[in-house]
Amino acid sequence: MKIRGLLVASAVFTVLAGLLYWSDHRKPSAEAAKPDADAAPSILKLDEGSITKVELKKKDSPAILLTKNGTEWKITEPKPLAADQSTVSSMLSTLSSLNAERLVDEKNANLQRYGLDHPSLQLDVSEKDNKTQQLLLGDETPAGSAVYAALAGDPRVFTIAGYQKTSLDKSLNDLRDKRLLRVTPDKVSRLEISGKNGDIEFGRNKDEWQILKPKPMRADSYIVGELVNKLTEARMDLGSSDAAAKDSDPAFAKGTPLATVELTDESATQELQLRRNKDTYYAKSSMVEGAYKVDSALADAVNKKLDTFENKKLFDFGYSDPSKIEIHSGSKTYFLTRGGHDWWDNGKKMDEDSVRSLISNLRDLSAEKLVDSGFTTPEIEGTVAAQDGKRVEKVQISKSGSNYIAKREGDPNLYQLSANSVEGLQKSVEAIKRATPAKPGK
Predict the structure, then answer these.
(1) DSSP state of 185
(2) Neighbours of 229 (CB within 10 A)
(3) Euclidean distance between CA atoms 333 and 393, whole angstroms
C-alpha cells in the first residue's frame, strides 16, 4: 500500500509540475496580446508617400498650400514659390505618424474649452485617394509644455508635445526654398566672375579646376571648390517682417555693384548679382524674384584676387603616387624606380628615408608668385611619374638673382620660388644614399 501511495503521489506531482510549466510559459504570450494601456494614443497614421496636398491655416495669416508635383513639393498659395524639400519632408514625417502624449477627453462637447473652436493651427491633409483629414491644434496646456489637439469629426481630445507643434507650425518663410542658386556643387562645370578684380573664368574637368581667363593656368581646385560651395549654399535673409523684405529691392537698386557671378551646370547658367548699400550686402538671382540681404562673407569670397585661385605648387602628384623619379642637381643624377616599398637606382637598393625626404621636398615646392620672365639655364631638373605612369610631370629650375624661377613642361607660366625652398630640395638630393646592407642572420 505504501508503494502504491508513493506512486500515486509521484504521478500527481508530475501533473502539477507540467501544469505549472505550461502556465508560466503561456502567461507572457497572453500578456503580450493585451494592448499596452500606457502606450501613446495614435492621432494620425498616414503613408507619407501617399500625401499629395497639405494646407496650413493660421489665425491672421494667409493659408499656405503645399502641393506635390512628382517627387517635388511646391508652394502654390498664397503665391507660387519653390519649397524647401527638407523642411517639408520633416513636417510630413511628424504629421504622418503623429502620436499623442495622452488622451484627455473621450467625448468632448466643448471645443472652446481647449481652444479648438478657433484653432491656432489647422492642417488639411489630402491623400491620393482624395481622402482628407483635418488636424486641429488649440491652446497650450496649463503647464505650457503641451498643446491640445483633435481631428475634425473625432470627439476625442489629445495633447501633443510642444516640439511636435513646432515641427508642424511653419510660416511661409520657413517652407520656401531660400537658396539663391539652385545648382548642386559637383554638377557645376563653369564659373565666371566679373568684378573689381576683372573677369575671371574657371572650367572644370572631372575633379580639377582650371583658370581659363584672363589666361589659361592651373587653378587651386580646393579654393575654387570652396567658392562654388559658398555660392550654392548662399541663402536669402528674409528679415523679420514683410516690410523689411520689401526694403531690399530699392536698397539693391541704389547699391554699388560688387560682382556678377555665373554658374553653369549641364542644364543651364544661373546668375547672381552682388551689391553693397552702406554696410549691408544684397544679392539678386536669376532663379528667384526680388533682391535679398546676404552675408558679407559671400561678397568677400567672390571678390578675391586672381592669384588667390592660382595653383602655385610645382608638382601635383600625391605623396604615395610616384613610381619613378628622375632628378638632376649639380653633379648628382638619380633614376629612381619604386618596387613595392623599396626604391632602386640602377639595380641598387636605395635608403627609403632619404628618397622619402626627396619626395616630400618635391611635393612641397610652391611658388611665391607667378611671373612673366626670368627663366634661364636650368640648374635642377626633376621628372616624376605617378599613377602608374599615367601622370608625368617635369619641372626645370633656374637661378634668378636671389630667387629661382621654375617652369613646368607644357605650362606657359613661370613660377618664382624662394631660395630656401630650392636649397632644401638640393640638400635632399645630396642626402640620397644606398640602403644599408642587412646583417646576415645567425
Answers:
(1) G
(2) 14
(3) 17
C-alpha cell read off for 217: 593656368
Residue among 132, 117, 160 nearest 54 (CA): 132
| Residue 47: C-alpha distances to residues 92, 100, 153, 163 (Å) | 10, 18, 20, 22
Let me know: does 324 contact 394? Beta carbons within 8 Å. no
Chain length of the chain:
442
Query: Which cell goes with 149?
Result: 489637439
DSSP state of 215: S
Q: Which three cell numbers stand for residue 405?
A: 624661377
Please enumerate in sequence order all residues whose Cβ is within 8 A of that of 320, keeping only pairs 6 or more positions apart, or say none. none
CB count within 10 Å of CB 409 equals 11
Per-residue pLDDT of the chain (442 residues; tens, 9 = 90+): 445 554 444 554 454 455 444 444 444 343 333 444 455 688 989 999 899 999 999 988 899 999 998 889 999 999 999 999 999 999 999 999 999 999 988 887 788 889 999 999 999 999 988 889 999 999 999 988 899 999 998 889 999 999 999 999 999 999 999 999 999 999 999 999 999 899 999 999 888 999 999 999 999 999 999 999 999 999 988 865 455 567 889 999 999 999 999 999 988 999 999 999 999 999 999 999 889 999 999 999 999 999 999 999 999 998 778 999 999 998 999 999 999 889 999 999 999 999 999 999 999 999 999 999 999 999 999 999 998 888 899 999 999 988 999 999 999 999 999 999 999 999 999 999 999 987 776 4
Q: How many CB atoms lie within 10 A of CB 194?
A: 15
Q: Where are the beta strands (DSSP E) in 360-413?
A: 369-371, 378-386, 391-400, 403-408
